[in-house]
Each structure stands twice: as C-alpha cells, then as structure tokens.
Design brief:
With 202 residues, the chain is an all-alpha fold. It contains nine helices and two strands. It starts with 9 loop residues before the first helix and ends with a helix. The relative contact order is 0.14.
C-alpha cells in the first residue's frame, strides 16, 4: 500500500533512474541547484537592509522539485560554500563574505532558505504540488519558513539601528508582495507540469 511519504516529486518522474545512476542524478541536481541559487542571488534590486532577489523562487522550486532531503541538502551546500568565503550571496563580495556576511542582517533569511526547501519539499512529497490551491498552501508555508527566522534575526542584530518598531517595515513589508508574486509562478507551473506528465503517460 502506498503512503504519502512515498509520493514522487517532479525530478523522480522527469529523470527516472536507479542504482549508481541515481547518485549521479542527485549529484547533478545538487550542483545545478547551487548554481541556480548563485545566479539568482546576482539578479537583485538594491533595498535596505536586505536586497530583493530571485532566490525565494529558486529555493521553493528546488524544494518542490527535489523533495525535502535533496532540497535541504542543496540549499545547505550553497550556504556552506558561502560560509567558506565564496562570493555566492547577494551583495558579495562588496558587502562582505563568509561567516561575517552570514552574521549580518541576511543571516536569518539564509537559514530560512534551507528550512523552506525542506518544508516545501516535504509538502510536495505529500502531493501538495499537484493542484494550485494546495501548492499555494505549500508556498505559504515556505514563505513563513523564511520570514520567521529572517525577521527574528534581523530584529535581534539590527533592532537598535533600525528601531524595534520598524521590524515589519524592514523585515517583511519591503519584500513580501514581491516574493508572493514570484511564487505565483510556482503555484501555476507545478500543477500544470504534473498535468502534462500525466497526459504524456496516459
């Protein structure tokens, strides 16, 4: 009998393999995801104190397409490269690199990326990516997974400089609607892709 946890994510169907080839597939997806996160960090709109980038969309797509474990591992790998000093984050190397950068105002959002990839991936494994309404729920959960640690960290590290009363304006208001619009793409795209896959297999 099948269980919720055994439901496939898109990469399970788009690229079917097993055995040794499965690890090759995972490695390719891992590297491709890190490259996508790096590129998406360079596409940005300068805002203070955290820039708006395409990373939120990429994180959610990685989580939904890869599943919770590979999605989390991919984002964690990206964060590990940044912690080692590679200029993979938004604003690097101009705004610092490595752990010094991660301890800045973006630190909570970066950790939230990994949490969001796992959260959205787990919901995708449960079949939430099959229709727009449930995919919207998955995206909303992913947004919360990013914004909660992001705002808490921003308030704790920059609260005195920004004013504690401005945590919403600086930590959420500047980005939430832009991120929500970006995630509409995933809400529409994933169920549509699943339908195409189903039609192709029928």
């Amino acid at each position: 009998m099948s269980t919720i946890a055994s439901r496939p994510v898109l990469t399970d169907l788009v690229w079917q393999t097993e055995g040794t080839a499965l690890w090759t597939k995972r490695l390719v997806l891992f590297v491709a995801g890190i490259l996508a996160l790096w590129v998406s960090a360079r596409v940005q709109i300068a805002t203070v104190p955290v820039p708006v980038t395409l990373q939120m969309l990429v994180v959610m797509v990685i989580g939904a397409a890869y599943g919770p474990r590979l999605g989390f591992a991919t984002v964690a790998g990206y964060l590990a490269l940044g912690a080692q000093g590679l200029p993979v984050f938004a604003g690097t190397p101009e705004k610092g690199i490595g752990l010094a950068y991660m301890m800045g105002p973006t630190g909570g959002y970066l950790i939230g990326f990994a949490l969001a990839a796992f959260t959205v991936g787990a919901l995708a494994r449960a079949g939430f990516d099959r229709n727009p309404l449930s995919m919207a729920v998955a995206m909303a959960a992913g947004i919360l997974a990013v914004y909660i640690p992001g705002v808490v960290w921003l308030s704790a590290t920059w609260g005195a400089a920004l004013g504690w009363e401005n945590w919403y304006a600086y930590g959420v208001k500047t980005f939430i609607w832009v991120d929500a619009l970006k995630l509409v793409v995933a809400v529409i795209a994933f169920p549509a892709i699943w339908k195409l896959v189903g039609d192709a297999r029928s």
